[in-house]
Write a structure and sequence with these properties.
This protein is α+β, with helices and mostly antiparallel strands. Helices cover 29% and strands 31% of the residues. The strands form four sheets. Strands 1, 2, 3, 4, 5, 6, 7, 8, 9, 10, 11, 12 and 13 form a 13-stranded mixed sheet that branches. A hairpin with a 2-residue loop joins strand 10 and strand 11.
Length: 357
């Protein structure tokens, strides 16, 4: 748009100096560029405020250009020399602002992933009491799911940068190796990160202890409430996290004072029964319930999950009772009868309820 020419013609018109040809030219330009009416209004205002001076002497076209060049900059004559407009704070810091926004979005995404619960996944597999299942995940990872356990994951697990699953209960993982795509098992208490290895995770909600046992490869462990601390496990090592605070809140701990949590790392030792060695932590995936030197109180949840029963232990049972053994195809009656050979006690069975006294 020829703004110089429009303003010049407007000024000549108001000063009564415009020729008929110039007035025709102005009408044509105003018709082509309707926004030029703004110039007309500004010039009329200036004319009204300066009645004693010649308008043509007062109006300085380049000042009007400065006032309105932001609005019509793309249409101004390219040859006109313009002063560089001051850079606004937003434009000056636009790069920094963009980076800050990106970091904010990354933090939000990381926080979302960190707090992701089992309900946020589109697929879940549940293994009820008395049931153990072997499954194959979309990425080829094999999972043995123990009784009363739930594994949650997204069906497009194999397309994600991080292969994340959420576990409540117990599972053994034989992870398919994929370079630069870690496999992460998250539970309510701990998280395990690996590339390719075989390990067992036990994390029942009702248990104050969460465990991870490594058979081969290596895994990186972290406690969800202490993510800055990383623990690396070697083959045949076992990590146990005990939440004393949770035990105290449920009245299950004899520790009324002291530390809130205990982190314990130890070597796993096979249990030798009838001349044969068994790995207590992982034998369940081979349909073997192995236990070593455990009290009735410790065995109670294991027996309930394994045989799908409810057990009540009477107060007459000495807490010093300890049991070591292995069950494979026995039912609950056969199992308790076998335990009676180790320590004297009685039991009553009614439907799925058992009273031990």
């Amino acid at each position: 748009m020829d703004s110089n020419r429009i303003i010049e013609l407007l000024a000549r018109k108001m000063a009564n100096e415009a020729t008929s040809r110039e007035l025709e030219e102005l009408d044509e330009l105003m018709a082509i560029y309707p926004d030029s009416l703004y110039y007309d209004e500004v010039l009329k205002e200036l004319w009204a405020n300066s009645p004693k001076e010649r308008f043509s002497d007062q109006v300085r076209l380049h000042q009007l250009f400065e006032k309105h060049k932001l609005k019509f900059a793309e249409e101004f004559d390219a040859n006109v020399q313009e002063e560089e407009a001051p850079v606004g704070w937003f434009k000056k810091y636009a790069g920094v602002f963009a980076i800050a926004c990106s970091l904010f979005l990354i933090c939000i995404a990381a926080l979302f992933q960190l707090n992701k619960k089992d309900t946020d996944f589109d697929t879940e597999i549940v293994s009820g009491k008395g049931i153990r299942k072997k499954i194959k995940l979309p990425d080829g990872t094999l999972v043995w799911l123990n009784a009363e356990s739930k594994l949650s994951y997204d069906n497009d697990l194999n397309q994600k940068e991080k292969r994340l699953v959420y576990l409540i209960g117990e599972a053994f993982f034989d992870v398919a190796h994929q370079k630069n795509r870690p496999f992460i098992v998250r539970t309510n208490q701990i998280s395990v990160k690996v590339l390719g290895t075989a390990f067992n995770v036990k994390a029942y909600d009702k248990d104050p202890v969460s465990e991870a046992t490594l058979l081969r490869g290596s895994i990186e462990l972290s406690v969800n409430s202490m993510t800055q601390q990383k623990i690396l496990l070697k083959p045949s090592e076992k990590f146990a996290f005990r939440n004393h605070k949770k035990e105290r809140s449920e009245g299950k701990s004899g520790f009324q004072n002291g530390d809130d949590v205990t982190l314990k790392i130890e070597n796993i030792a096979p249990v030798r029964i009838a001349g044969q060695d068994y790995i207590e932590e992982t034998s369940w995936k081979d349909d073997l319930l192995v236990f070593k030197n455990e009290s009735f109180e410790d065995l109670k949840p294991k027996l309930e999950r394994w045989f799908n029963v409810r057990i009540e232990i009477g107060g007459s049972i000495p807490k010093s009772y300890r049991f070591t053994g292995i069950f494979k195809n026995e039912n609950i009656t056969e199992a308790l009868t076998a335990m009676q050979l180790i320590k004297p006690f009685h039991f009553k069975l009614k439907a799925d309820d058992i009273i031990i006294y």
